């Protein structure tokens, strides 16, 4: 299987977690794009979706899936999203697609986070993938200096403005031994909207694609 075939296989498997007549939390990225396409095949069985990005909203609507405002919903049964890295403890780095803040918000409202990923995303220790941090534009340089104090090497993601009108700093060269602690520390820096560590609220289930097939890990 190619990497894209693995992404498609885990996306289709994620349909097993969707109950009839529910609103589904939908993440962002190339794996999720396959999931949205798969969701369209059962669109008459679901009520609709809550989306974590303008990109996913567009794709959902193109498939005729109704997209609800999160403010009109108390809880979601499941949130389906990809990851840039995931550990066996289900902590993740996310935000390669710059959608981390809305992803974290939708995940917070969801009872179960189902991560869909190919096995290139599995790591022992987080941090080889640069950690995205969403920052209020006027705080960019200040936040970058604070991230250096935490041991990182922040790089401004040129030309990218998030759906929330902010910028992204990608923090290189961090070996993340304490993901929950670092998630809190970075979020405490004034001007940070949030960071791409999903450790306080990690995944509950990993649907993992490999050359051998699809495995569900909980
Ligand atoms: C977007 C994300 C994505 O889930 C992450 O980047 C994985 O993307 P892909 O499925 O394309 O590999 O966090 O902000």
Structural commentary:
The protein is of the alpha/beta class and 218 residues long. 28% of the residues lie in helices and 27% in strands. It is built from six helices and 13 strands. Strands 2-1-3-6-12-13 form a six-stranded mixed β-sheet. The protein has a four-stranded antiparallel β-sheet with strand order 8-9-7-10. Strands 4-5-11 form a three-stranded antiparallel β-sheet, covered by helices on one side. A hairpin with a 2-residue loop joins strand 12 (205-210) and strand 13. Helix 1 crosses helix 2 (30-40). The protein binds ribulose-5-phosphate.
* Largest pleated sheet: 6 strands, mixed
- Average pLDDT figure: 97
Structural class: alpha/beta
| Helical coverage, percent range | 25-40%
Compute the number of helices: 6
As a whole number of angstroms, the C-alpha radius of gyration is 17 Å
Strands in their spatial order, largest beta sheet: 2-1-3-6-12-13
Q: What is the approximate shape?
A: globular
Q: What's the helix-strand series? A: HEHEHEEEHEEHEEHEEEE
Q: What hetero molecules are in the model?
A: ribulose-5-phosphate
Uncertain runs with pLDDT below 50, 5 residues or more?
none
Strand content: 25-35%
Distance between the termini: 23 Å
**How many strand elements?**
13
Fill in the keyword field for this structure.
218 residues, alpha/beta, six-stranded mixed sheet, four-stranded antiparallel sheet, 6 helices, 27% strand, globular, binds ribulose-5-phosphate
Topology:
Blueprint: H1 3-13, E1 23-26, H2 30-40, E2 48-51, H3 54-62, E3 76-81, E4 85-86, E5 92-93, H4 100-109, E6 110-118, E7 131-135, H5 140-149, E8 153-156, E9 167-172, H6 179-187, E10 192-195, E11 197-198, E12 205-210, E13 213-217
Parallel strand pairs: 1-2, 1-3, 3-6, 6-12
Antiparallel strand pairs: 4-5, 5-11, 7-9, 7-10, 8-9, 12-13
Helix pairs in contact: 1-2
The structure holds ribulose-5-phosphate (5RP).
